[in-house]
Each structure stands twice: as structure tokens, then as C-alpha cells.
Amino acid sequence: MQYFFVLPLNYEKIAAYFANPYKNKCMQVFKFGGASIKSADAVRNMVEILKRFPDEKILIVVSAMGKTTNALEEILHLKLKKLSTKATIQKLYEDHANIVNSLFDDHASEPLEFLQSIFEELENSLEKIDINHYDQSYDSIISYGEIISSNLLLKYLELKEFSITKVNAYELVRTDDTFRDASVNWIKTKETISEKVKNEFTNHQLLITQGFLGGTEEGQITTLGREGSDFSAAIFAYSLNAKAVTIWKDVPGILNADPKKIQDAVLYQELSYKEAAEMTYYGASVIHPKTIKPLANAGIPMHVRSFSKADKGGTIIHDCKVIHEIPCIIIKEKQSLISFQLNDFTFITESLIGKIFDTLNKHHIKINMMQNTAISFSICVNDDLHRLDQLMSELKNDFSILYNTGLELITIKNFNESLIDRMTHKKEIYLEQRTRKNYQVVVKSLESRV
Ligand code: ASP
Ligand code: MG
């Protein structure tokens, strides 16, 4: 008689193992976000961090400097409204030029020349944008932020005598042409990245690349969604089977609430992939929601550490069994609440809800919370005026639509009543929901009202 033991298997993990049977023990990925490179001092601090790892091969993923992405969005919107972009472009140029002058000192002429030519290129690209292809125009303009930062940082790290070269994410991260929210072709991406990066690492200690950017097979630049550089770090780490990813941030790690908004926030020393993914889903802005999955599938740990206190360990997200019972508060700002109603006492049927979902899907709008009653269906979504306009104009013949903007979605995991009172104090409640462990509420702050 034979006995068989059946073990639970994680097929994705096994597939990742056979795709690359050994962990790339000597290689890791660092991601520096906009805040960590927003000024000359911040960049010098980044250099100090890199000096702590003299023997490591590191792929550095960078965002645009400071608030560049927001500025580029503003420039694009001014241009689309046929307003002057001159002052905003000039300000953005000067912000970068100031950083260059401070960092490069006597060696500033070459990086300044680069800066001038790339800003000329940006202005030429602005002349070519097409209002009928908003998403594609968006990616062609917004991508300048990361292209500028990666080139300037490459030049500065070369000046500081690091052994470094640049690889371009828009040539390596292969995506479809869903501009502004591109989907990654994992097989092609892994193939291109592992080949190119391994090659470059044979001659260099460090590589630098752009976060947030991808490219189609035809060579068009795409972006992966706002704050997508964390996801880029995960894409590179997964494709290289890296030893670890570290996200260097302006917070000490992942806390149970945003320390900028809530004083007594507590740091998590470690989190399981599952808990971390859940937190990002509810809107914890500390990491991009798509980041965890590729790392969990390949078993790659992710560290979230403070760039200003680089000697501290921060939070590690990995394969662990810890389940936290302390409350966790996540506040997602810039939310809109849209309610679809029928005027003639007809109930909202599944097929009508289906129509709403199809339209949401078509315009790449994600639902953060939803609720239906007999005669209305309400969704809480990110304020993205361009997408929401398209949604509403497409559905306005079927429904009467009510619409509120400037709201917050608050999620409390492991809630208690006193915390709910504290979080909803001086707030007007628009929508509320609770399950056994989670409380969610859409609110408007009464204090910020004029
Ligand atoms: N620069 C992009 C943004 O601000 C991507 C990122 O920072 O992750 O959305
Ligand atoms: Mg950014």
C-alpha cells in the first residue's frame, strides 16, 4: 500500500524559481522617490547612502525630482487650454538649474547644456500634443521628469567617481499601449531586462534607470500610473531575481497611520506581503499598490527605510506569518463620490450596474468603495477630472448623476469606536461601511470649508 502526502503548493513561486533557480545574491534594487532627490542636499544625502554599500551591485530606480511630475501636469493642462506655459516651464527649468549649479559647481556647464536641450525638446513635444489623444500626450510630456532626473543623477554620480551607467526603463519595461496606466508584458520585460542589465553589471557597480516609465514594442513611451516608481523597482527586482528592494522614503518605514497627519503613529518592524498589499489597496500612499505582487511571487523582500536616518532598519515586507491586531488608519485624499440614480422609481438592476462597470473599466477608473440602495448606486473614486468627465458624459443619458468632489476616504483596519469618533470628528459623513475588521467612511472635512 502506498501513501501520498499532498502539500499545498504555490505555483507562481515554483514557476519563478524555475525561471531563475538561483537568487541573484549580489544584486539589489534601490528606489529613490521625488522627495529624496528634491534638492542638492537631498542628492548629496543619496550619495552618502550609496557609499554605505561599497560592495553591492545596485540598480537605482529614480523618480522625477521633487514635485516635477505635478508641474509637468500643470504645463500640459495649460497647453491644452491654450494658455501660456512660459512661466511654469521657466520655474521648472530654474528649479533644476539651481540643483545643478549647487551640485556641480565648476563642472556645471555640461549638465546645464543638457538641461537646456532637454527643455527645448519638451517645448517641441508640447507643440505636438493632441487633445484627442490625451493619455498618449500625457505620457509623452510627463515622462520628461524621470528622463531629466536620471540623466542629471548619472552625471553627478559619475562626477563623484562611482562606477555607473544608465539603462532606459522605456526601452526595457515592455508594456501595452494603455497610456497613463500601462500593463506590463512580464515575459518580454524579464527577457530584455535580464539580458541588458546583466551585461551592464559586468562592467559597472551601479546602474541607474527611470521609475514610472515603460515603452511599447513600437517605441512609444508609456507610464505606469502616478507614483508608479515603486512598481518599477519591483518590476526590475522580479526580472533580475534580485536579493532585495529598498524604497528610500521621507518616513521611517511603514506606520499604522500617516505620521504627517496622526501624531501617535507606530512603525511596523515587519509586514507580510498580504498585509502590505491590503494596506496599499486601501490607499496607504507609502507604496504603490502594484508593487507587492511581483515581489511576493518571487519571494523578494522589500525594505522601506528613511533616507534621512539611513542607519535605521525601517520596515521589512517579506514572507512572514505576523498578523497585526493594532488599528491601522489609511486616509486617501482627493476622492469623488458619484451616485447614479434612475428618475422614475425604477430599481437599479444588475444589468444597469453592469453598464456602469463596463464604462468604468473602459476609462480605467478604479472603484475605492461602493454601495447600492434600491434606487441608487454610489462609487467612491479618485478625483481624475478628465476620466470622470468622460464617464459621466457617457452615462448621462441612462442615469441622473450626483457628484461630490474634494472628499476623503478613511479606512480603519482593526477599528474601535473611539477611533471612529476621533477620525470622523468635524467631518461630514457621505458614505459609511463596516465589516468585522474594517471600517470605511467617505467624508468631507468641515474645517476646510469656506
Ligand atoms: N514621478 C511620478 C509621480 O510623481 C512617479 C513616482 O514618483 O513614483 O507620480
Ligand atoms: Mg513622484
TrEMBL record:
User: Which positions fall inside the Aspartate/glutamate/uridylate kinase domain?
Assistant: 28-306
Which is a Pfam family this sequence falls into? AA_kinase
Give this protein's Gene Ontology molecular function annotations.
Answer: aspartate kinase activity; ATP binding
Q: Which domain of life is it from?
A: Bacteria
Matching SUPFAM superfamilies? ACT-like, Carbamate kinase-like
The catalytic activity, as recorded, is: L-aspartate + ATP = 4-phospho-L-aspartate + ADP
The record's section on InterPro entries has:
AceGlu_kinase-like_sf, ACT-like_dom_sf, Asp/Glu/Uridylate_kinase, Asp_kinase, AsparK_Bifunc_asparK/hSer_DH
Per UniProt, which keywords does this protein have?
Answer: Amino-acid biosynthesis, ATP-binding, Kinase, Nucleotide-binding, Transferase
The record's Gene Ontology cellular component field reads: cytosol
- Catalytic activity, EC: 2.7.2.4
Under which pathway is this protein filed?
Amino-acid biosynthesis; L-lysine biosynthesis via DAP pathway; (S)-tetrahydrodipicolinate from L-aspartate: step 1/4; Amino-acid biosynthesis; L-methionine biosynthesis via de novo pathway; L-homoserine from L-aspartate: step 1/3; Amino-acid biosynthesis; L-threonine biosynthesis; L-threonine from L-aspartate: step 1/5
Task: Provide one Gene Ontology biological process annotation.
Answer: homoserine biosynthetic process
Answer yes or no on keyword DNA damage: no
EC category name: transferase
Instruction: Say yes or no: keyword Methyltransferase present.
Output: no
Q: Which family does it belong to?
A: Belongs to the aspartokinase family.
Q: What is this protein called?
A: Aspartokinase
